[in-house]
Amino acid sequence: LCSDVRLRIQQRIAQAFGISSASMYLTKPTFFSRINNTEAKTTHDEYWHPHVDKVTYGSFDYTSLLYLSDYAEDFGGGRFVFMDAGSNKTVEPRAGRVSFFTSGSENLHRVEKVHWGTRYAITISFTCNPDHGIGDPVLM
């Protein structure tokens, strides 16, 4: 299932940006996130700060988010915000919705603080550098 989801997202990103999916490689960290309103224990837990994925993670060229819970039903706050000069663009998470974008400075973003409930998502990232590629996760 994980491989199938990764492949489908990879193909959509390639199509949207006019590149070959064969030139894209899964990269780390690809991770599951569970965000609620508990206090951050470390600065890494402070997800609400504006950031650029390429700067934060290094290997990211394309970032995708697969949402697993619904904004306003499962949690409050927690919307994804692209921080554009002039006006921000906000994505409201919905279970099954996938958003994706290039990971460079053109896509400064943050996640609003979650006020109640729990926001679930999977971040699946890709690199164009085969040296930074990883295999699909394997369940033991």
TrEMBL record:
Residues 28-130 form the Fe2OG dioxygenase domain. GO terms for cellular component: membrane. SMART domains: P4Hc. Pfam families: 2OG-FeII_Oxy_3. It comes from the Eukaryota. Keywords: Dioxygenase, Iron, Metal-binding, Oxidoreductase. Its cofactor is L-ascorbate. The keyword Iron applies. GO terms for molecular function: dioxygenase activity; iron ion binding; L-ascorbic acid binding; oxidoreductase activity, acting on paired donors, with incorporation or reduction of molecular oxygen. The keyword Iron applies. PANTHER family: 2-OXOGLUTARATE AND IRON-DEPENDENT OXYGENASE DOMAIN-CONTAINING PROTEIN 3 (PTHR14650:SF1), PROLYL HYDROXYLASE-RELATED (PTHR14650). This is OGFD3 protein.
